[in-house]
């Protein structure tokens, strides 16, 4: 890169859609319009002295090894930190690398973490792993502030939760939990993947660390894996980065480049998906053959008012209960537009049966507590016409 190539910083008053296209661009001497893909694992030095100096104290735009950082991945990190409203970010190989890194980088034996019990199966695995290494983990109903209040202790090191739970779409009060955590100096770590960076206000509401699976809405087309940890510069560079760069959790330059391209259209895509999700949920509510329709944007959702305050909308995900596994499987197999997959946030609409896929390792008793019934389907609404999606689902009911 050219000597005067510095990250492009934009006026903070500009709309997030503008910042998602332009912020943090690093241009080489060629003045390329598209973000450059630096497909290299290493970097050369002009002298042995320069190599020594860089290893001792690398500057903000100096690189050593792709596992430590890369110009392309740094552009993605800068842009995500800007969108999320944090000082810094570290891009990871996957969303679970972000969750693992955000928790493992600071936790030690004897620490106490309070977590919502309604989590993605792999997030629960990470917490189980922490417990095996001597971290005490207390689980609560994430929607009940009284349970958070009772569980958080003076020695609690951190709280962790999904702002909107996977797959039953429970909404956790970020500001309420953050107030309780800050009273004892506990770190507030939020998995914000269902809220998306478009509807996120997590930092304003008290989150210290926000993690995303960039695989989902940020990429938006189901092409590659990625994740990101957003937080203070001290947390990201002094705690998360050392853990991730030494354990190999950094994103690949190619995947970071794909995520950068995804960010350019993310707001347009996600807002269109959320609008369609509301139309789908509204049309299916009261539909014969459905036990319930779960969508935070519907007035009957238990946390509807909170979702409106916290996100300004209901998001892109809908859950429906058909009453039994047999009915759920039959409907899935009749669908022609909805694709059976365990991903979400894609341009293509996706249907998932959590009890037999994403949450299958949980016991039946635990799934019941989380509202993951045998008839529950998770719908990720894509960019297709909402009317076509509604017709496809209704046809699937037979």
- Tell me the structural class: alpha/beta
Quick one: CATH class of the largest domain? Alpha Beta
Please tally the helical runs, counting DSSP H or I stretches of 4 or more residues.
14
Major pleated sheet: 7 strands, mixed
Number of domains: 2
- Distance, first to last CA: 60 Å
Proportion of residues in extended strands: 5-15%
Which assembly state applies to the chains in this document? Answer: single chain
Gross CATH architecture of the largest domain: 3-Layer(aba) Sandwich
- Biggest sheet strand order reads 1-7-6-5-4-2-3
- The general outline is globular
The radius of gyration is 21 Å
Keywords: Amino-acid biosynthesis, Methionine biosynthesis, Pyridoxal phosphate, Transferase
Pathway: Amino-acid biosynthesis; L-methionine biosynthesis via de novo pathway; L-homocysteine from O-succinyl-L-homoserine: step 1/1
InterPro entries: Cys/Met-Metab_PyrdxlP-dep_enz (IPR000277), O-succ-hSer_sulfhydrylase (IPR006234), PyrdxlP-dep_Trfase (IPR015424), PyrdxlP-dep_Trfase_major (IPR015421), PyrdxlP-dep_Trfase_small (IPR015422)
GO molecular function: carbon-sulfur lyase activity; pyridoxal phosphate binding; transferase activity, transferring alkyl or aryl (other than methyl) groups
Task: Describe the protein in words.
The chain has 398 residues and is α/β, with parallel strands linked by helices. The protein folds into 2 domains: 16-262, Type I PLP-dependent aspartate aminotransferase-like (Major domain) (Aspartate Aminotransferase, domain 2, 3-Layer(aba) Sandwich); 268-396, Aspartate Aminotransferase, domain 1, CATH 3.90.1150. It contains 14 helices and 12 strands. The chain has helices at residues 16-22, 48-56, 71-84, 95-104, 121-132, 145-151, 174-182, 196-199, 233-247, 253-284, 304-310, 325-334, 364-369, 386-396, and strands at residues 88-92, 112-116, 136-140, 156-162, 187-191, 209-213, 227-231, 292-294, 317-321, 339-340, 350-352, 376-380. The strands form 2 sheets. The protein has a 7-stranded mixed beta sheet with strand order 1-7-6-5-4-2-3, sandwiched between helices. Strand 4 (156-162), helix 7 and strand 5 form a beta-alpha-beta unit. The chain is globular.
């Amino acid at each position: 890169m050219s000597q005067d190539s510095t990250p492009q910083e934009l006026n903070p008053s500009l709309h997030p859609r503008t910042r998602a296209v332009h912020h943090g661009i690093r241009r080489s001497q060629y003045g390329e319009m598209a973000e450059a893909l630096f497909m290299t694992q290493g970097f050369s030095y002009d002298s042995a002295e320069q190599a020594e100096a860089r290893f001792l104290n690398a500057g903000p735009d100096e690189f050593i090894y792709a596992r430590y950082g890369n110009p392309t991945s740094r552009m993605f990190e800068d842009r995500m930190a800007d969108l999320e409203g944090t000082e810094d970010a570290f891009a990871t190989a996957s969303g679970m690398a972000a969750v693992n890194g955000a928790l493992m980088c600071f936790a030690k034996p004897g620490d106490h973490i309070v977590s919502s019990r309604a989590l993605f199966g792999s997030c629960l695995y990470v917490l189980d792993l922490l417990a095996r290494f001597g971290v005490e983990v207390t689980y609560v109903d994430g929607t009940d502030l009284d349970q958070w209040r009772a569980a958080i202790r003076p020695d609690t090191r951190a709280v962790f939760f999904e702002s909107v739970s996977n797959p039953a779409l429970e909404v956790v009060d970020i500001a309420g939990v953050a107030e309780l955590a800050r009273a004892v100096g506990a770190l507030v770590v939020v998995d914000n993947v269902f809220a998306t960076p478009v509807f996120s206000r997590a930092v304003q509401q008290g989150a210290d660390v926000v993690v995303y699976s960039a695989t989902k809405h940020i990429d938006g087309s189901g092409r590659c894996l990625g994740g990101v940890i957003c937080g203070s510069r001290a947390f990201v560079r002094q705690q998360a980065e050392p853990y991730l760069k030494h354990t190999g959790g950094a994103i690949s330059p190619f995947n970071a480049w794909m995520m950068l391209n995804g960010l350019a259209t993310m707001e347009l895509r996600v807002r269109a998906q959320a609008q369609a999700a509301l139309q789908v949920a509204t049309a299916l509510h009261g539909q014969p053959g459905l036990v319930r329709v779960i969508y935070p944007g519907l007035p009957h959702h238990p946390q509807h008012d909170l979702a409106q305050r916290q996100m300004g909308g209901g998001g892109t995900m809908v859950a429906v209960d058909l009453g039994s596994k047999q009915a759920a499987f039959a409907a899935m197999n009749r669908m022609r537009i909805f694709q059976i997959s365990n991903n979400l946030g894609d341009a293509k609409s996706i249907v998932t049966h959590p009890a037999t896929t994403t949450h299958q390792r949980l016991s039946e008793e635990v799934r019941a507590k989380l509202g993951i019934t045998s008839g529950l389907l998770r719908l990720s609404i894509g960019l297709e016409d909402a009317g076509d999606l509604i017709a496809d689902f209704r046809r699937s009911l037979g």
